[in-house]
Amino acid sequence: MKVTLDNIYTVLFSVLCFSLAFIGDRFYAIPNGINISLVLIFPFLVNKQKFINHIVKKPIVWFAVFLSFILVKSVLLGHFLEDISVIKKLSQALLLLILSCGLKPKSTETLKSGIVLGTFIAVIYSLIKIGIIVIQTTTFNFAKGPIINETLPVQRLYLGLLCTISLILVIEKFFKNRQKLNLFLAVLFTLFVFLIAARIAIISVLIVIIYYVFIMIKAKYKYIFLLLIISTTSMVVLLNNNLSKRILHLDDTFRESYVDKIAMHEPRFLIWKYSYEALQSTNLFLGNGFNRTEEKLVSSYKKIPQLKKRAWFINKRFNTHNQYIDIALSQGFIGLSLFLIFLFQLFVIAKKSHSDLLLLLSALIYMLVYNNFHRVIGVYIFSLIFIFILEKSNYQKLKK
Q1: Which end of the chain has fewer CB atoms within 10 angstroms, the N or the C?
Q2: pLDDT classification of 395: cutoffs 50, 70, 90
């Protein structure tokens, strides 16, 4: 491969994709340094007409409108300095979308390979760490506790998301070239999310598998396979100690009702309860701003009767753990409407491709339980999904 600016640009973008499985809450110098390099090279690669055609695509326009609304509102209402952390992350997403204009039409395949390779190495690293811990302790508890953070190179939720994305990408490659390596990787990523008991990843992976069953299997066999998937998953959950604790809370013998167990052990139960209460005292049109929304929630956590849990919630300063609720509370229904219009415009393009539709669906599912725009890694992953959906090849498919 010749050393050209185009190739250097693609390699830098690919290294960024590769690094996602390792940056977590640390090592932000890597993606930040790559961003600076991409910005410096970008003017030498971008074609003016291509740039204009790129930024006027409806999803990018609506995302820019959404971001502009937040920016202008925060300045006018005096929230800018308080909300600058989240605004910077949202701006980072727009910057990556603009920088993707400097990629060659087929360069996104290299980016996808970067994500898959990074996730694969992260999985192997985690399996080695898990093996060492099992040998040292003769136990394997991935339901809760600090051992999870010590074992995985990145937060469980995001490693699960990367496994889901990688699963979609390798299945896409398998249908193109029928290489057994891609099938092996698909099985590895699927089994791994069950091993680490990544609940939302398990749901997403099952949706991916069921989706492909329904589009690839003959009609008379579809429901047989669906029943097989559901029954196998149920057996795995019941027989696996970590999954039964994480999903069914079978280790809680003090409460008989499953609802009571969820209320006791699931932080989101209380977070969403207090988020709903905060919504009732919020300006429904303009919202509170990101920081003041968080302050409202922290203040509400003081109502939690259990002293230890109350201190934990306040110390962690839990946000809404739902991107849609977060936008509704912080930016009001105007901001939420703009965000939903943007997602709809993205869906209009993504629905033309099985893999793109599943990538978008995975992102939408994760935003039900996490605030992607509050974490750098969340912003990067969402931005790359955005870039993959908007790649030139998709538009070529639409024309055919």
Answers
A1: C
A2: very low
